[in-house]
Amino acid sequence: MSDERGSTFLPFLAGIATGALLGVLFAPQSGKETREAITGQGTAAKEKLEDLVAEGKRRWSEAKGHAKEKAELTAEEVDDLLTFLMKEGRDLFERLEKEKAKHA
Q: Residue 81's domain spans which residues?
């Protein structure tokens, strides 16, 4: 299940990161301040990426759970159908035996 939003999100995130990095590099700061700012933004980006990965894992797990539920429901429906058909088959067999006995 992909959507258009997912295909544009990573380039959008990369654009934000590039813009932030260029802004820091060209800002009038000392080298130490610039390194600290880059490190801070890198840490924030890493945390955001970890959050996105965790959300992706959560959604994947949820989707697997839904698929498993549907598969189990289908298995139950098949079992019910087979039970019904076996009962109907027995009833039909008994009726045929009775008809056969009448004409014998």
A: 4-102
The total of structural domains in the chain comes to 1
Length of the chain counted residue by residue: 104
Q: 84: helix, coil or strand?
A: helix
> What distance in Å separates the CA atoms of residue 104 and residue 102, rounded to the nearest whole number?
6
Q: What are the DSSP calls for 24-58, one per residue?
A: HHHSS--HHHHHHHHHHHHHHHHHHHHHHHHHHHH
Per-residue pLDDT of the chain (104 residues), as tens digits, is 455 555 677 788 788 888 877 777 777 777 777 777 778 877 888 888 888 888 888 888 888 888 888 777 788 888 888 999 999 989 888 988 988 888 86
Question: Left if phi > 0, otherwise alpha if psi is -120 to 50, otherwise beta: which for 29?
Answer: beta
The residue type of 99 is E
Rounded Cα gap, residues 23 and 7, in angstroms = 26
